[in-house]
Amino acid sequence: MSQALNTLLEHARRQRDEALSALLQCEESVRRLREQGRQLQTYQQEYEARDPARSGQVAQMDSLLWHRAFMQRLLHAVQQQQTQLDATEQRLTELRNALLAHEIRVASVDKLLQRRDQLHQRRSVRAEQRLSDEAAARQRWRSPFEVEPDAAITQH
Fold first, then answer.
1. Which residue, 10, 25, 47, 85, is most buried by CB atoms nearer than 10 A?
2. Dist CA 82 CA 51 (whole Å)
């Protein structure tokens, strides 16, 4: 039974380690996506500041149209990136919950093994004590009137 529990513990630890690895990779993805989002927003703000219509000068219609079209594409890219970040953060939450579940399973199996070991140790101690008590009782039963060697010396 103990071998099966040890195998179960090893399997649970392996699953926990895999969950931890996936969590760390996802955390790195979230970090990269956040940085990418900041860069996109900074670029969007800088490009918006260069709007030909903002300068107060007369601008060519083509220039205005190109600027507005690019701003739309840039806004769409920012929105897509934010959607990807939201999905990755949701995945991160799921991975944290999964890791917690794996940690609890490892701790539970480990605790069960510890309890089994303690029970086995208590049984061993009790068995040894019982054998010792029986041996002492047999010794006393065999020679109830014999004097111990140390006692014989002190009586003289």
1. 85
2. 24
The residue type at 115: R
pLDDT tens string 98-153: 999 999 999 999 999 999 999 999 999 999 999 998 888 888 887 655 555 555 55
- Token pair in block for residue 98: 């999964």
- Residue 16, classified by CB atoms within 10 Å of its CB into exposed (0-12), middle (13-18) or buried (19+), is buried
Cβ 36 vs Cβ 83: under 8 Å: no
> pLDDT grade, residue 61 (50/70/90)?
confident
* Number of CB atoms found within 10 A of residue 102's CB: 19
Domain annotation for the chain: domains and CATH numbers: 2-109 (1.10.287)
Q: Three-class SS string for the chain?
A: CHHHHHHHHHHHHHHHHHHHHHHHHHHHHHHHHHHHHHHHHHHHHHHHHCCCCCCCCCCCHHHHHHHHHHHHHHHHHHHHHHHHHHHHHHHHHHHHHHHHHHHHHHHHHHHHHHHHHHHHHHHHHHHHHHHHHHHHHHHHHHCCCCCCHHHHHHHC
- Which residue's entry shows tokens 């760390």? 24
Residue 33 CA to residue 14 CA, distance in Å, equals: 29
